[in-house]
């Protein structure tokens, strides 16, 4: 389908209070047309005083349904590698031709 990057959350990590930098709750609705995809939920962090951080979790094994909306919930424990991050980005990356629709993305920092 040619659209590899889905809905994206991008925010200055330095503006997130330190006491809310332990865990990220990610909730969204996903409609998958097929299980034959390579989609990943990606968490990326960058900063001048750190090595770029990239983490991708495969949605293929976590999604149960096709041809209907499914609620997807993922908890991500923030690693120490992200301590000096200045920006954080969370998005769905799908390099395959299978179509995934994303809606109602919610992100909470705890």
Task: Please tell me about this protein's structure.
This protein is an all-beta fold. The chain has no helices and seven strands. It has strands spanning 5-12, 23-32, 40-46, 53-58, 69-77, 87-93, 100-109. The strands form two sheets. Strands 1-6-3-4 form a four-stranded antiparallel sheet, with no helix packed on it. It has a three-stranded antiparallel sheet with strand order 5-2-7, with no helix packed on it. The protein is elongated. The mean pLDDT is 93.
Note the main attributes of this structure.
mainly beta
- pLDDT averaged over residues: 93
Query: Low-confidence parts lasting 5 or more residues at pLDDT below 50?
Result: none
How many strands, what sense, and barrel or not for the largest sheet? 4 strands, antiparallel
Whole-angstrom Rg: 14 Å
